[in-house]
Amino acid sequence: MLSAGGIIVPPPGYVKALAKMAHERGMLLIMDESQTGLGKTGKMWGHLHEDVVPDIMTVSKHFGAGLPVSAVCTTAAIADQAVGNGYFATRSHACDPIVCAAGVASIDIVQEEKLVERAAAIGRRMQAQLEAMTKDVEAIGDIRGRGVLYGVELVQDRGSRVPADALARAVVAQCQTEGLLVQARGSHGRMNVIRLVPSMVSTDAQIDQGLSILGQVLRSASRVAASKAA
Predict the structure, then answer these.
(1) 71-81 tens-digit pLDDT
(2) Phi and psi at residue 151, in whole multiples of 5°?
């Protein structure tokens, strides 16, 4: 998934085909799981949705639960080849025992508290409520995502699907005023996708409250935009 690009979910089979094409050309498949790893998509790792095992995987962000730690994971064969080719990398806090302990603890907590399953349940809850919003908010052109990573694409009309950047900015500003922190993201210079990234420990009541605020703001902002266009 491309998070900052507007929560873009690859179509079925895309990643698998990409891996096949890379390997046919002697290339490695590298996947950055900084945002999609450790349960956030409803599976422990994002690539598990695609039935693909990357040759190299990177992990960071919530891996350290606030402490700065990251990891590069690969096979012993690739690691040995890299070292044999002279690869060497280090930094001031490489293998710092405190941050390494934080990384291990993060994995333990995700598993012990069943946060992968919780993220999947939150995703199903958001999907259902967002689908309901599309019935009376014409500006919603698409909803997409997995687990606790979801995007609501706003368009000027569903026929042309012209991005509604100004509407997205207005929605973000009003949501913040109402106590809901969201962001607008997009690709190719556009910023028309409202990105929703609730915590994996959010309660059902908190999810419902946040989506209620979003729905009210979307309806209000859509009416204002329509009146200006008229």
Answers:
(1) 999 999 999 99
(2) -130, 140
